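Review form for a predicted model. The reviewer records the input and the model, then writes brief findings.
Reviewer: anonymous (R2)
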Amino acid sequence: MNKIKFSKKSFVYIIIVLLILYILFFDSASFYKTLNIKNKLVLLQHDIEDLKKENEQLKLENKKLENDKGVWEKKARELGMQKEGEEIFIFKESDGL
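Model under review:
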């Protein structure tokens, strides 16, 4: 059987390569994990911006509902509400018969 002999120099190179691989991929602060965290951070920042825009739109809608009775009444009717004594007629579409 042939035995593979490693010199001290090649052994040091193997250790260095293994250490670099560990640092790049397996360490808690590895390059791979850091890149994933940065990508998640960018996605979360986009989500935050979208939610801020939606929040501003809801604040505007809320102010309209507080100040304009017409908008308030329109929203109430969209929810199926009616004024006292008012009759509502619901028309159903036919199945094409």
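Findings: The mean pLDDT is 84.
Further findings: The CA atoms of residues 77 and 83 lie 9 Å apart.
Recommendation: see findings above.
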